[in-house]
């Protein structure tokens, strides 16, 4: 079975899964997965969020052990207790997040933790000459023209990704796992990466390639294996595959999301928020849309499509290069978060733990943080004056908090999210940006948060809604714009769109 | 204080009190011990002396508390205090002939306070514009300001103060040293500022999480710069009082004061990571340090041992806070 088309001694490994299952508490993340990944080919692995893809990656990377079942490499049973075990068996994973140290050279990064040593005057010292010689040889072997002495911080993201793969290759793997290697790359750099992947395939390395981008599959993969809800949904040769076949495998029979009855939105008047030609070079280009009073506009797109970046830029948290933003007809382009707040905008950020809340402060203080100016127009403030705003949000949003004076860090994820929302509702905003409001909260809290958003829209709030879960965007929004690689590529009516269609638009755009 | 009260009720009220107000309890125990063991500790003259010494450092410590809560630090307060004294002395020397004593002194003090504020504020702006950490910026000022102070005086004490100027640092009002009034006023003002103004709340938010505060529409650099500016102004006030007390503007005065100030703030329970701390706690820290130095001197403990003990106290206070954090 071994691939003999290459002159190299390195041959690809045969990777087999036999009824591999992973259970977390009550949740079955991966169920009875059995498949054979033939050596020396590029195997794409697809599946939406929560399909069991990441579980599979973690098992192969030695991060977790399967609850049941076996993984075999070249016919030998394996159990990866640590990443080191996985390396030993010839399985190396390149994770989505880069793990290079920016202030060190390429060569040092590649051999980090196993620097070549030499004896000088009876002392073991780092053999820099050998390190850079080996690194250069490795880079050249892979067809990369990079100076091993260069610092990682001087490289583009694409070059860094390539160095990451070179580092993985220095372990001489039989199976190389690439987890969404293109998610942060521009088109030109994707080509650099693909050239490298093809070269590695020629050398006989078995490659597992995880991606969300449909068009990449047809360009780089030989086969495509799909997971759905922790189950094996099928595997096809790319030569026989079509985009619609793969989408069908990913989603199966999908039920329409249940939506509450929403009143029709009056789009005849002037929009509350209008964005026109907004551009930040290399991040998003020419983004235009408008939101009306009482309307929830969903922004759909894959990770890295530019959804969060657009919202942050409108809110003044990041700079923009071109375009304009108007709120209620007043131009507020290139503002600061403070000015946007004064103009009536609110923003609940996607990572609430890191930037949405001040964890050391109390729930009380966090609920008043954005509205201090409104509560205390003269600058002087008392707990008593804040109390009304705090009590109102705790009651309206049903925040479960035993003692508002204790640090907000003691609350559950869902309740913390409600505090972030309550903090902004206290400013009585006209427009709210909800960035991943359902991330990391339980099902019940998620329902409550959606109810809050609908309820506020009913009262006249205009909202932008972003979620990685496309089902949620379909459910919550009144209208959807689809972003792909920093551009708006489509506008949809969620009541007339299926999940499969939306997913396809996010992945490849309407033209194909 | 409200957060401390909200701790779980324990079985023993004494233990509960100790958990809620650890430093307060320790300070009371220390004072009782010193009253009985150190001869002369409880005398009125000694108490006023402790208060006067503590006041000069405490005025700065209240400002430092706000700066540390905002997530910054200022190492230049000792040098800043020396500089302020020299500026006042120099202005007095230049203007006393033409304008008379009181007016010359007033102009000198105003100028010193304005310069102190401007220096502090620009440390914040340096952080904003050039991303220079306040640690580095104030480390530079730590040496530079002392140099400038000595350049102003020419290396000798400037004894150009008008008659009656010594009242500020050394005088008594209704039997209590004048600096104590300034100290109490500063405490009240900073306590009010941190707890009852928008600015104070913003300081906590900015120090607790800069990005969250920025995304909440708080002007984080203005808040940090203002905190540093206020500290700079308070440093100048204290520096003026010190100069008045010793009767001259001297470039070498208040050496090492920054460490005492930061120690008092930390003993008071303020976190160096920012976002946490109380002006009240710093008051306890200042009194605690004042009592322990005075007590040790009265007990004839050698100066070298005093340094060691003070080091131990700083470490012990931080450990205590960490342990309390865990059991709360």
Structure overview:
- The complex is a heterodimer of chains A (512) and B (328).
- With 512 residues, chain A is α/β, with parallel strands linked by helices.
- Chain A is built from 18 helices and 22 strands.
- A 6-stranded mixed β-sheet of chain A has the order 6-9-10-3-11-12, sandwiched between helices. Chain A has a 6-stranded mixed β-sheet with strand order 18-19-20-15-21-22, with helices on both faces. In chain A, strands 2-1-4-5 form a 4-stranded antiparallel β-sheet, with helices on one face.
- The two termini of chain A are 37 Å apart.
- In chain A, 46% of the residues are buried.
- Chain B is mainly alpha-helical.
- In chain B, 76% of the residues lie in helices and 1% in strands.
- Chain B contains 15 helices and 2 strands.
- Chain B has helices at 2-5, 13-20, 22-37, 44-69, 77-99, 101-130, 134-153, 167-170, 178-196, 198-208, 210-215, 220-246, 257-267, 279-298, 303-327, and strands at 172-173, 176-177.
- Chain B has a two-stranded antiparallel sheet with strand order 1-2.
- In chain B, a hairpin with a 2-residue loop joins strand 1 (172-173) and strand 2.
- In chain B, helix 2 (13-20) packs across helix 3, helix 4 (44-69) runs parallel beside helix 9 and helix 10 crosses helix 12 (220-246).
- The longest helix of chain B has 30 residues, at 101-130.
- Mean pLDDT of chain B is 89; it is low at 1-8.
- Chain A binds chain B through residues 315, 317, 336-342, 347, 349, 354-362, 365, 368-370, 372-373, 376, 379-383, 403, 405-407, 423, 427, and chain B through 2-3, 6, 196-202, 204-205, 208-209, 211-219, 271, 275-276.
């Amino acid at each position: 079975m071994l691939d003999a088309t290459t002159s190299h001694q390195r041959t690809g490994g045969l990777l087999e899964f036999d009824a591999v299952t992973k259970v977390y508490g009550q949740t079955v993340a991966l169920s009875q997965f059995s498949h054979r990944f033939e050596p020396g080919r590029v195997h794409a692995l697809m599946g939406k969020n929560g399909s069991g893809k990441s579980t599979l990656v973690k098992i192969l990377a030695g991060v977790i052990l399967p609850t049941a079942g076996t993984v075999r490499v070249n016919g030998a049973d394996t159990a990866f207790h640590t990443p080191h075990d996985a390396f030993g068996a010839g399985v190396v994973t390149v994770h989505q997040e880069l793990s290079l140290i920016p202030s060190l050279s390429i060569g040092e990064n590649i051999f980090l933790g196993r620097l070549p040593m030499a004896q000088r005057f009876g002392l073991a010292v780092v053999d820099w000459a050998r390190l850079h010689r080996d690194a250069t040889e490795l880079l050249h072997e892979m067809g990369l023209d990079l100076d091993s002495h260069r610092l990682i911080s001087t490289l583009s993201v694409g070059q860094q990704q390539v160095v990451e793969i070179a580092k993985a290759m220095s372990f001489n793997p039989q199976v190389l796992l690439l987890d969404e290697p293109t998610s942060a790359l521009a088109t030109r750099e994707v080509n650099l990466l693909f050239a490298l992947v093809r070269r590695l395939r020629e050398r006989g390395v078995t490659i597992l390639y995880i991606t969300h981008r449909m068009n990449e599959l047809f360009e780089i993969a030989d086969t495509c294996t799909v997971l759905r809800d922790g189950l094996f949904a099928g595997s096809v040769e790319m030569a026989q595959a079509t985009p619609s076949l793969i989408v069908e495998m990913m989603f199966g029979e999908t039920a329409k999301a249940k939506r509450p009855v929403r009143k029709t939105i009056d789009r005849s008047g002037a929009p509350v928020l209008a964005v026109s030609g907004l551009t930040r070079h290399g991040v998003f280009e020419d983004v235009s849309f408008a939101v009306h009073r009482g309307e929830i506009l969903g922004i759909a797109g894959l990770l890295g499509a530019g959804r969060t970046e657009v919202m942050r830029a409108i809110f003044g948290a990041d700079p923009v290069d071109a375009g304009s933003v108007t709120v209620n007809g007043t131009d507020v382009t290139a503002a600061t978060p403070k000015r946007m707040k004064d103009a009536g905008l609110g923003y609940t950020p996607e990572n609430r733990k890191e930037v949405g809340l001040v964890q050391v402060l109390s729930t009380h203080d966090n609920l008043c943080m954005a509205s201090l100016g409104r509560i205390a127009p003269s600058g002087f403030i008392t707990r008593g004056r804040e109390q009304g705003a705090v009590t109102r949000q705790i009651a309206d949003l049903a925040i479960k908090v035993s003692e508002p004076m204790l640090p907000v860090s003691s609350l559950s994820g869902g309740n913390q999210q409600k505090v972030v929302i309550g903090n902004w509702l206290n400013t009585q905003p006209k427009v709210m940006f909800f960035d991943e409001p359902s991330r990391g909260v339980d099902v019940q809290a998620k329902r409550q948060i959606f109810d809050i958003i609908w309820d506020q829209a009913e009262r006249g709030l205009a909202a932008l809604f972003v979620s990685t879960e496309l089902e949620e965007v379909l459910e919550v929004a009144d209208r959807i714009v689809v972003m792909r690689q920093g551009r708006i590529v489509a506008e949809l009516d969620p009541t007339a769109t299926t999940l499969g269609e939306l997913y396809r638009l996010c992945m490849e755009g309407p033209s194909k | 204080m409200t957060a401390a009260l909200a701790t779980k009720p324990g079985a023993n009220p004494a233990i509960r009190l100790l958990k809620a107000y650890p430093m307060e309890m320790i300070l009371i125990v220390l004072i009782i011990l010193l009253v009985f063991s150190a001869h002369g500790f409880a005398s009125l003259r000694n108490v006023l002396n402790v208060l006067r010494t503590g006041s000069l450092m405490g005025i700065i410590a209240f400002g430092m508390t706000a700066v540390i809560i905002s997530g910054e630090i200022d190492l230049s307060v000792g040098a800043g205090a020396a500089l302020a004294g020299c500026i006042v002395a120099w202005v007095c020397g230049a203007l006393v002939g033409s304008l008379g004593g009181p007016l010359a002194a007033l102009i000198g003090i105003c100028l010193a306070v304005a310069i102190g504020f401007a220096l502090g504020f620009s440390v914040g702006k340096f952080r904003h514009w050039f991303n220079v950490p306040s640690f580095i910026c104030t480390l530079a000022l730590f040496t530079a300001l002392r140099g400038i102070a000595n350049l102003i005086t020419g290396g000798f004490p400037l004894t150009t103060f008008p008659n009656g100027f010594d009242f500020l640092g050394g005088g008594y009002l209704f039997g209590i040293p004048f600096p104590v009034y300034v100290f109490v006023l500063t405490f009240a003002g900073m306590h009010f500022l941190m707890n009852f103004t928008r600015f104070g709340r913003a300081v906590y938010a900015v120090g607790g999480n800069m990005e969250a505060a920025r995304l909440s529409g708080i002007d984080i650099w203005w808040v940090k710069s203002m905190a540093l500016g206020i500290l700079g102004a308070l440093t100048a006030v204290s520096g003026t009082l010190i100069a008045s007390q010793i009767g001259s503007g001297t470039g070498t005065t208040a050496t090492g004061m920054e460490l005492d100030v930061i120690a008092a703030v930390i003993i008071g329970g303020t976190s160096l990571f920012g976002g946490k701390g109380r002006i009240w706690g710093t008051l306890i820290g200042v009194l605690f340090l004042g009592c322990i130095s005075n007590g040790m001197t009265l007990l004839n403990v050698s100066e070298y041992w005093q340094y060691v003990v003070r080091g131990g106290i700083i470490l012990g206070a931080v450990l205590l806070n960490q342990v309390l954090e865990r059991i709360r």
